[in-house]
Amino acid sequence: MAKKKKCTKCKRRKPLEQFYRNKKAKDGRQELCGKCSSERRVQYYQDNRDEQLAKKRDWRRKYPEKPAELQERRRANRKSLLKRRGLTPKQYEAMLEVQQGLCAICQKPETQFRHGRLQELSVDHDHESGEVRALLCGHCNRMLGLAGENPEVLRVGADYLESYSQ
Question: How many Å apart are CA 149 and CA 139, to the nearest integer?
Fold first, then answer.
């Protein structure tokens, strides 16, 4: 049986895996579950936003070269990812222009953020052949992946939703 622990905020007993690790704690886990811990961080940031932004500005003044290094690393990572898919940055931009910056499935722009930045549309590809298909938003890309890229599963899912929308 999996060990459980009670979150000190929500008071629910949850599996230990739902608590972040903490070497200093007796059981090796934080007092708050992951969800409550996340909510607490968000609330702290909202309550101390000006102070947090000032710290960020101070850090950028103290280490002016770091943001440029991070940006260069992101650029290199993007280039590497595109290369694995057999695309150049120019080809990606051309696909983006043809799709008018919208997801090929839902026809909406990307809405996912990562590290405070809007994500780029994902390069969808056939996992068997490696052939690039189109650019997708994070939601649609995950939908295909979770369905195992099986069109029949997606059709049955659509039928299911339609049967309840009448």
Answer: 14
β-bridge mates for residue 123, sequence order: 135
The topology under which CATH files domain 88-164 is His-Me finger endonuclease fold (3.40.1800)
Query: pTM of this prediction?
Result: 0.54
**How many beta carbons lie within 10 A of that of residue 43, not counting itself?**
10
Strand 113-114 relative to strand 29-33, pairing: unpaired
128 DSSP assignment: T
Where does the pLDDT of residue 2 fall: very low under 50, low under 70, confident under 90, or very high at 90 and above? low
Question: What does the buried/exposed string (b/e) look like for 108-143 if buried means 16 or more CB atoms within 10 Å of the residue's CB?
Answer: eebeeeeeeeeebbbbbbeeeeeebebbbbbebbee
Q: 28 near 21, Cβ under 8 Å? A: yes
Domain positions in the chain? 88-164
